[in-house]
Amino acid sequence: MKKTMLLALFMATTVSFAQNPSQEQAEDYMHKMEAWHDMDVTVTDSLYKLLDGHAKRDIIVKGKDIYKIMFIKEVPQYSASYIYLDGTKLSLSKINSIRKKILSKHKSGTPFSALIAEYNMDKNPKADNLVFTTGVMVPEFEKAVKEHTPGELYMVDVPAAKWYYVAKTNAAVPSVKTFHIRHSRYPY
Fold it and tell me: With a threshold of 0.85, does the pTM exceed it?
Protein backbone atom coordinates (compact mmCIF):
# COMPACT_ATOMS: atom_id res chain seq x y z
CA MET A 1 0.00 0.00 0.00
CA LYS A 2 2.82 2.41 0.90
CA LYS A 3 4.58 1.66 -2.41
CA THR A 4 1.36 2.37 -4.32
CA MET A 5 0.86 5.69 -2.48
CA LEU A 6 4.49 6.74 -3.08
CA LEU A 7 4.25 5.76 -6.73
CA ALA A 8 1.01 7.74 -7.12
CA LEU A 9 2.58 10.79 -5.39
CA PHE A 10 5.67 10.53 -7.61
CA MET A 11 3.54 10.27 -10.78
CA ALA A 12 1.37 13.24 -9.79
CA THR A 13 4.46 15.34 -9.04
CA THR A 14 6.13 14.35 -12.34
CA VAL A 15 3.01 15.13 -14.34
CA SER A 16 2.54 18.52 -12.69
CA PHE A 17 6.16 19.49 -13.40
CA ALA A 18 6.02 18.27 -17.01
CA GLN A 19 3.05 20.45 -17.92
CA ASN A 20 3.37 23.46 -20.15
CA PRO A 21 3.35 26.83 -18.37
CA SER A 22 0.18 28.88 -18.06
CA GLN A 23 0.23 32.44 -19.40
CA GLU A 24 0.74 33.74 -15.84
CA GLN A 25 3.63 31.32 -15.18
CA ALA A 26 5.23 32.30 -18.50
CA GLU A 27 4.99 36.01 -17.69
CA ASP A 28 6.48 35.48 -14.21
CA TYR A 29 9.26 33.38 -15.70
CA MET A 30 10.04 35.96 -18.43
CA HIS A 31 10.45 38.69 -15.79
CA LYS A 32 12.86 36.57 -13.71
CA MET A 33 14.77 34.68 -16.37
CA GLU A 34 18.40 35.25 -17.09
CA ALA A 35 18.86 32.96 -20.09
CA TRP A 36 17.13 33.88 -23.32
CA HIS A 37 17.88 34.10 -26.98
CA ASP A 38 17.15 37.26 -29.00
CA MET A 39 16.15 36.76 -32.62
CA ASP A 40 14.42 38.46 -35.54
CA VAL A 41 11.46 36.71 -37.12
CA THR A 42 10.33 37.59 -40.66
CA VAL A 43 7.53 36.37 -42.88
CA THR A 44 9.69 33.48 -44.15
CA ASP A 45 10.19 32.05 -40.64
CA SER A 46 7.90 29.36 -39.24
CA LEU A 47 7.27 31.43 -36.08
CA TYR A 48 5.81 34.35 -38.05
CA LYS A 49 2.25 32.97 -38.07
CA LEU A 50 2.37 32.48 -34.30
CA LEU A 51 3.51 36.08 -33.71
CA ASP A 52 1.45 37.87 -36.35
CA GLY A 53 -1.42 39.77 -34.76
CA HIS A 54 0.44 40.30 -31.49
CA ALA A 55 1.86 43.59 -30.19
CA LYS A 56 5.04 44.83 -28.54
CA ARG A 57 5.54 43.34 -25.04
CA ASP A 58 3.10 40.46 -25.68
CA ILE A 59 4.20 37.11 -24.27
CA ILE A 60 3.22 34.09 -26.33
CA VAL A 61 3.40 30.52 -25.03
CA LYS A 62 3.63 27.51 -27.33
CA GLY A 63 4.27 24.32 -25.41
CA LYS A 64 7.29 25.00 -23.21
CA ASP A 65 8.57 27.74 -25.53
CA ILE A 66 7.99 31.31 -24.38
CA TYR A 67 8.34 34.27 -26.75
CA LYS A 68 8.25 37.94 -25.78
CA ILE A 69 7.90 40.53 -28.54
CA MET A 70 10.45 43.25 -27.83
CA PHE A 71 9.62 45.41 -30.86
CA ILE A 72 8.11 45.23 -34.32
CA LYS A 73 9.45 47.09 -37.33
CA GLU A 74 8.46 47.42 -40.97
CA VAL A 75 11.25 46.31 -43.29
CA PRO A 76 11.25 47.31 -46.97
CA GLN A 77 11.26 44.53 -49.55
CA TYR A 78 12.63 44.64 -53.06
CA SER A 79 11.79 42.59 -56.13
CA ALA A 80 14.00 41.80 -59.08
CA SER A 81 14.32 39.35 -61.95
CA TYR A 82 17.72 38.17 -63.00
CA ILE A 83 19.78 36.03 -65.32
CA TYR A 84 22.84 34.60 -63.62
CA LEU A 85 25.92 33.84 -65.69
CA ASP A 86 28.53 31.68 -63.98
CA GLY A 87 32.06 33.06 -64.28
CA THR A 88 33.54 29.73 -63.18
CA LYS A 89 32.12 28.07 -66.30
CA LEU A 90 32.25 30.92 -68.84
CA SER A 91 34.98 33.40 -69.70
CA LEU A 92 34.26 37.08 -69.14
CA SER A 93 34.27 37.68 -72.92
CA LYS A 94 31.68 34.89 -73.39
CA ILE A 95 29.56 36.37 -70.56
CA ASN A 96 29.65 39.81 -72.18
CA SER A 97 28.70 38.29 -75.54
CA ILE A 98 25.69 36.54 -73.96
CA ARG A 99 24.71 39.75 -72.19
CA LYS A 100 24.65 41.60 -75.53
CA LYS A 101 22.36 38.90 -77.00
CA ILE A 102 20.05 39.13 -73.98
CA LEU A 103 19.78 42.92 -74.23
CA SER A 104 19.22 42.75 -77.99
CA LYS A 105 16.50 40.09 -77.71
CA HIS A 106 14.78 42.01 -74.91
CA LYS A 107 14.92 45.26 -76.90
CA SER A 108 13.25 43.49 -79.84
CA GLY A 109 10.38 42.28 -77.64
CA THR A 110 11.36 38.96 -76.06
CA PRO A 111 9.93 38.88 -72.53
CA PHE A 112 12.53 38.82 -69.79
CA SER A 113 10.92 35.67 -68.35
CA ALA A 114 11.64 33.85 -71.63
CA LEU A 115 15.25 35.06 -71.54
CA ILE A 116 15.58 33.79 -67.95
CA ALA A 117 14.38 30.36 -69.07
CA GLU A 118 16.89 30.36 -71.91
CA TYR A 119 20.01 31.81 -70.27
CA ASN A 120 19.86 31.64 -66.46
CA MET A 121 22.56 29.29 -65.15
CA ASP A 122 21.40 28.78 -61.56
CA LYS A 123 17.95 27.36 -62.47
CA ASN A 124 16.37 29.18 -59.52
CA PRO A 125 12.58 29.03 -60.00
CA LYS A 126 12.32 32.44 -58.28
CA ALA A 127 14.66 34.17 -60.74
CA ASP A 128 11.68 35.86 -62.42
CA ASN A 129 10.45 37.42 -59.15
CA LEU A 130 13.04 37.32 -56.41
CA VAL A 131 11.72 39.19 -53.35
CA PHE A 132 14.23 40.06 -50.62
CA THR A 133 14.88 42.41 -47.71
CA THR A 134 17.95 44.49 -46.96
CA GLY A 135 21.03 42.47 -46.12
CA VAL A 136 19.91 39.22 -47.75
CA MET A 137 21.56 39.58 -51.16
CA VAL A 138 25.20 40.40 -51.92
CA PRO A 139 25.73 44.17 -51.58
CA GLU A 140 26.44 44.72 -55.29
CA PHE A 141 23.14 43.13 -56.33
CA GLU A 142 21.08 44.83 -53.64
CA LYS A 143 22.54 48.26 -54.44
CA ALA A 144 21.86 47.87 -58.16
CA VAL A 145 18.23 46.83 -57.56
CA LYS A 146 17.65 49.86 -55.32
CA GLU A 147 19.28 52.27 -57.81
CA HIS A 148 17.28 51.25 -60.89
CA THR A 149 13.68 51.91 -61.82
CA PRO A 150 11.14 49.11 -62.36
CA GLY A 151 11.43 47.55 -65.81
CA GLU A 152 14.98 48.75 -66.43
CA LEU A 153 17.61 46.14 -67.44
CA TYR A 154 21.16 46.47 -66.14
CA MET A 155 24.32 44.49 -65.41
CA VAL A 156 25.55 43.46 -61.97
CA ASP A 157 29.06 42.12 -61.50
CA VAL A 158 30.39 40.36 -58.41
CA PRO A 159 33.86 39.57 -59.75
CA ALA A 160 35.28 38.25 -56.44
CA ALA A 161 32.73 35.40 -56.61
CA LYS A 162 32.70 35.27 -60.44
CA TRP A 163 28.95 36.00 -60.48
CA TYR A 164 27.59 38.05 -63.38
CA TYR A 165 23.99 39.10 -63.89
CA VAL A 166 21.60 40.79 -66.23
CA ALA A 167 18.92 42.04 -63.86
CA LYS A 168 15.66 43.94 -63.89
CA THR A 169 14.05 45.74 -60.97
CA ASN A 170 10.40 44.77 -60.64
CA ALA A 171 7.51 46.85 -59.32
CA ALA A 172 7.60 47.84 -55.66
CA VAL A 173 6.40 45.28 -53.14
CA PRO A 174 4.90 46.02 -49.72
CA SER A 175 7.18 46.15 -46.71
CA VAL A 176 7.06 43.26 -44.27
CA LYS A 177 6.82 43.15 -40.48
CA THR A 178 9.81 41.86 -38.57
CA PHE A 179 9.38 40.83 -34.96
CA HIS A 180 12.36 41.14 -32.61
CA ILE A 181 11.69 38.59 -29.89
CA ARG A 182 13.18 37.05 -26.80
CA HIS A 183 12.83 33.29 -26.62
CA SER A 184 13.28 30.96 -23.69
CA ARG A 185 12.19 27.50 -22.78
CA TYR A 186 10.20 26.93 -19.59
CA PRO A 187 12.37 24.59 -17.49
CA TYR A 188 9.71 23.06 -15.24
Answer: no
